[in-house]
Amino acid sequence: MKLFIKIFISIILVILFNSNLYPDTLGSLLKQDFTKQQRIKIHFEVNKRLYSFEAGKFKLKKIKKNRDKINNISEKILPWAIMEHLKPEEVARIIVYMYHADEAGASFIDAEDLIPLVAKKDIPLKDFVLMVQYNRETERAKIPEEIRQSFLGQAVDRKWDGVSILAGGRGLILARSGKLNINKTASLLLKNLPAKGARTTSQNLISIVENIIGKSSKKQNSQKIIKNFANTHKTVVKTQNSPQGLKNIIHNADQTVQQVQRIGRVKIPSTPLKNRQIDKENGIISDLEKKPSSVTSTSWKTINKAKLMKTIKPWLGTPYKYGDKTGKRGIDCSGFTRIVLIHKNIGVPSDEIGYSTSTQKNAGNPVNIKKLRCGDLIFFSASPNRSKITHVGLVTSPKTFSHSCSRGVIHDKLTKKWWRQRYVKSRRIFNRIVD
User: Fold this and answer.
1) Distance spanning both ends of the chain, measured CA to CA
2) How far apart are CA 145 and CA 50, in angstroms?
3) Are the C-beta atoms of 205 and 163 separated by less than 8 Å?
């Protein structure tokens, strides 16, 4: 019987593919960068996943009604797919994730930052929409990009569900509200929160967060965030894994956005307020705690091309790891550029180059793409918001650069159309170059 059902589903999916579920506009778009076999695989996987999510009820009318939305999402994903070197099955999975995030009420811009993280991970849709909510809230609360990405990457590695991820995000936000050390708070949250938050009570999760944050969680604004989390937890546990269920989760969680935005306007002091438990902890990004370099020499501003290539070489093939700035288990794009530049062979002082694209984009001085040379930083956008930087690489010659993408650390050509079309800006770190 099960075999018959599988065969029946396959036949239906083939019919759907041939019945113009996807209009020629999408086919033409995919045709530029994917083979016919790859395009069929993408279409088939999208249909299969949409069918599965409908719990056995194939709502053909609904899917046809929303095919424009699917095509629109697919078009937005294509730059990500090409620039991140995604496989057809990964492209299909992300199309479905984004489709349901949109249906639930989250924008593509809010969800797209997770594409490099989930491209190779098949996670429940409930968890994905909660991760999107985590991203929305921590971004609006102005949690530093490197910390929110590193925290999320480590949480996913530990197989946390979306409930625990959102609880951790709220913990980071409350720490910021209390002007505590967010980097060290993140480490304590990772150590103490359970992996499966949906299997415990909201009160248990809240108690863990409050024990870490201390008195900061007693403020009125903080209490509203905590109360909203309890309601969201209840919604997640009770709701079914359905389109309406996902919409309920986002709608419920979104009630806290006003409080989060207020916290985002809080001024963070250079010396965070004291909290004994947090102060003695090591942060998730350890050298954030180091004092800025006191080096006054500018000898590092001359770069030796041979030394740069020698420093990059051992990193080639290192797997991409979302939010990893250390290179211990992999490295992300801004982690790679930073770790190469501060290497003793190159010598850029650690306080001269940030951990994230949002900080690195201001390093050094602007330089025109036509004048690129070895050692320059180059920035790209895969986002519909073309001014939003989503990727960074290190220029090795006027026509080549090195970067970390889903294929790992690789050398790439700047002459490829997607890099040229999605170029945003470049920055010059070094004053002089020698061979």
Assistant:
1) 69
2) 32
3) yes
d(CA 288, CA 271): 13
CA–CA gap between residue 22 and residue 67 (Å, rounded): 7
Phi, then psi, of 122 in degrees rounded to 5 = -95, 100
Q: Cα separation of 80 and 88, whole Å?
A: 12
Q: Which residue, chain included where needed, has tokens 């700035």?
A: 325
Looking at the DSSP bridge assignments, the partners of residue 409 are: 404
- Give the three-class secondary structure for 404: strand
DSSP string, 239-253: S-SSHHHHHHHHHHH
Interstrand relation of 365-366 and 432-434 (parallel, antiparallel or unpaired): unpaired
Q: Give residue limits of the domains in the chain.
A: 1-122, 123-284, 295-434
Q: How far apart are CA 357 and CA 337, in angstroms?
A: 10
Structure tokens at 54: 């409908």
Query: Which residues pair with residue 304 across a beta bridge?
Result: 434
| pLDDT tens column, 104-137 | 899 899 899 999 998 888 888 899 999 999 999 9
Distances (CA, A) of 17 to 13, 74, 156, 426: 6, 15, 34, 42
Who contacts 221 (Cβ-Cβ below 8 Å, separation ≥6)?
Answer: 177, 259, 262, 263
**Contact at 8 Å (CB) between 87 and 230?**
no
Q: Are the beta carbons of 300 and 349 closer than 8 angstroms?
A: yes
**pTM for this predicted structure:** 0.88
> What fold, for 295-434?
endopeptidase fold (from Nostoc punctiforme) (3.90.1720)
Strands 302-304 and 432-434: parallel
Provide the pLDDT for residue 51.
66
- Pull the structure tokens for residue 182: 């967010």
Range among 43-52, 61-70, 78-87, 192-201 rated most confident: 192-201
- Of the candidates 100, 172, 173, 175, the residue with the CA atom closest to the CA atom of residue 130: 100
For residue 214, what is the enclosing H or E element? none
Flag whether pLDDT at 21 surpasses 80. no
For residue 173, what are its two tokens? 């936000």
Any bridge partners for residue 303, and if so which? 433
Q: Answer yes or no: are the C-beta atoms of 430 and 375 closer than 8 Å.
A: yes
Report how far residue 302's alpha carbon sits from residue 283's, in angstroms, rounded to the nearest whole number: 32
For residues 189 and 177, what is the distance between their CA atoms, to the nearest angstrom?
A: 16
Nearest to 215 by CA among 183, 190, 191, 179: 179
CA angle 350, 351, 357 (to 5 degrees): 90
Residues 164 and 152: beta-carbon distance below 8 Å: no
